[in-house]
């Protein structure tokens, strides 16, 4: 039992800690404190080793240095400073011996180590150490540091990393970070930490310093920046684009930067470079979430690399596609069609053209849908649901084509972001990119089906929703890809909650080793499921194929699943942040 006076707490009798010995005592709130009797003096420290939580009472003290018995991290016993990399300092407490009782000053319970833990996160990101990253994030979240601040640190690291590398392949990393953030918002506690740590680990790695890019001198007119950027994009000169973008930022033309990048990205010569639209979408979301100051490095560098890359000689089909799109686009840019009635849109005919394995038919279908005034939202929804339907039905016995099918889905969904930031013209041109992706996936052997036809499933043979969810989770865990799609469909046809099922399936996916791979698609399905749950048919409300979003996701994640848990670092980090030593955690 402890006695308290203001911040001072009586924690033990002097006789409890014999000379040269150590003893663990518990504070009322459960925190474990280590007491050491060294050379006739009592020292008190947190008993949880800041590295991985091993109890420090099991460590050794020599010459005033406390060394943990697990991995040998060592600390100044008096001040707590750590001598090792990737381990923060140890908390120590003032001690007084009053009438053979040991008292320690615990201080207030306020979290004050934000900067130390952000630095720890930075170290973990540089060294790609999952434990350090998970621990730092868990401690920061426990200290109520806003999630945005944590992600900003990760974003800063990512910006530096991408800027100091030569290639334009940072899009996947931005995707994981942004998608991790978006998916994480659907979860709490350990699930949320899992998503954040996964996203952070997937962007970790060495980064180098680089010279700052300085704006062009003088007051450069926006028209010049716009014209030069388009020209450099056409000629494949990314470095020059980056300087133009920094100049635009410096001259307060921020609002025009994303539309300009988008306009460059959807030029016909970029047909087939689908990561342009995907990555720009994630960069745009980074600006939406963190603002220009924090996102500018990554947006300018990666954006310039994407739209300023060299394209090489196109192969025959791509060359035809580029020429065709070049000839169709001017009419679309100048047309001003009246919005068409929903009933005038023949969605099945549109889909049939996309799947015709004939790029001319496919592109002409896109062009005529646009010219006849079908709403962009509606066409994007068709492409999203077509991709979901293909994921729901692709045969899994040989190569299911998950990589390209998820690209079809994520690309189609990213056209909504393109429309938001680049405008209707950009989204319209993006439709050709999406149509090209379907054409280039012509090797997939998926039987054709009318997208507007009913799915005609039975109902799941369970007595309630809980059992239905359990059946599906069991199929996912046992890699039963042959049945999981049907079960999801029957679950939904039974009238059970799709929101709940998606949430539960998402959690199962996040704790598997394949979580990094699944993140972008899981995020798309969360977004599109929500849009199609509303009342707007243009966004998929009431569409007969909307259930395929969940069916396709379930089949995809089940088929690629490894059943290797990647959550041990996360679970241990959660316990660590609660202040539990490893021994206590193991005892639970
Ligand atoms: S050095 Fe103490 S837990 Fe690793």
Q: What would your notes on this structure say?
A:
This protein is an alpha+beta fold and 588 residues long. 55% of the residues lie in helices and 8% in strands. It contains 22 helices and 11 strands. It has a 4-stranded antiparallel β-sheet with strand order 1-2-11-10, with no helix packed on it. A hairpin with a 2-residue loop joins strand 10 and strand 11. The longest helix is centred in the middle third of the chain and has 33 residues. The chain is globular and about 90 Å long. The structure holds FE2/S2 (inorganic) cluster. The site of FE2/S2 (inorganic) cluster has 10 residues, from loops.
Number of helices: 22
Q: pLDDT average, as an integer?
A: 91
Low-confidence stretches: none
Give the overall form: globular
Q: How would you describe the oligomerization state of the chains in this entry?
A: single chain
Count all strands and give the number: 11
User: What structural class do the secondary elements suggest?
Assistant: alpha+beta
**Bound small-molecule species:** FE2/S2 (inorganic) cluster
| Strand line-up across the major sheet | 1-2-11-10
- Largest sheet descriptor: 4 strands, antiparallel
Whole-Å distance between the termini?
23 Å
Share of β-strand residues: 5-15%
Q: Nearest-angstrom radius of gyration? A: 29 Å
Helix content: 55-70%
